[in-house]
Amino acid sequence: MERKTVELPRPDAMIFDMDGTLFKTETLLVPVFHKVFDRLREEELYAGETPPEELILGCLGMLLPDIWRRVLPHQSETVHRRADDLLLEFELEGLQQLDTELYPQVLETLQELKRCGVRLFVASNGLEHYVKGVAEAHRILPLFEGIFSAGEYKTATKVDLVKLLLDRHGVSRAWMVGDRSSDVEAGKRNGLTVIGCAYAGFGDGSELAGSDVLIGSFGELIPLYDQAKEA
């Protein structure tokens, strides 16, 4: 995509969001979403139609409690926690049974970045077994030095999760790569360069405001890295 010329510092590491950045989430989430509501109705925990798919897709990047407060605003915490369990169960099943997808050029780009000596990490607001399950199912798990999830570390915000990652791995010069405002905030508040992924299209037009650069495909990371300035 067209972008203004920006001189970026060359990173030692890149930190990636998962949903909407590496993983084409709708290839898993849409069928799983319907299964969750079918089961909630079977268990008499929910009555009525399944909410629109666009509603949960618009919540990608949020913590699960915030997602269910938006998708199931009139249901109890008991229903929300049951929805958590069902979502994870059906997602893990789906990763084995459904034809899910990474975005184009993700595998090749990650391999090239690693070959160039870039340390690779994931920071996601998702559940631990889901985030690691996606990476394992799509054979990118060995490329990452660390996979950090809000589900595993119980962080309240992505800002906190990224700070934990930076501290634990001694990372000081990194790019935060993601598609949601929470990624932009996590990067900026931790002093990182932010690369906004504009290809998923789950958020509104202001979602990536504040990014240093917007990319229209994952493969654009390679020329950005090649052109970045050594410290």
TrEMBL record:
GO terms for molecular function: phosphoglycolate phosphatase activity. This is HAD family hydrolase. One of its GO terms (biological process) is DNA repair. GO terms for cellular component: cytosol. InterPro entries: HAD-like_hydrolase_sf, HAD-like_sf, HAD_2, HAD_sf, PGP-like_dom2. It comes from the Bacteria. Keywords: Hydrolase.
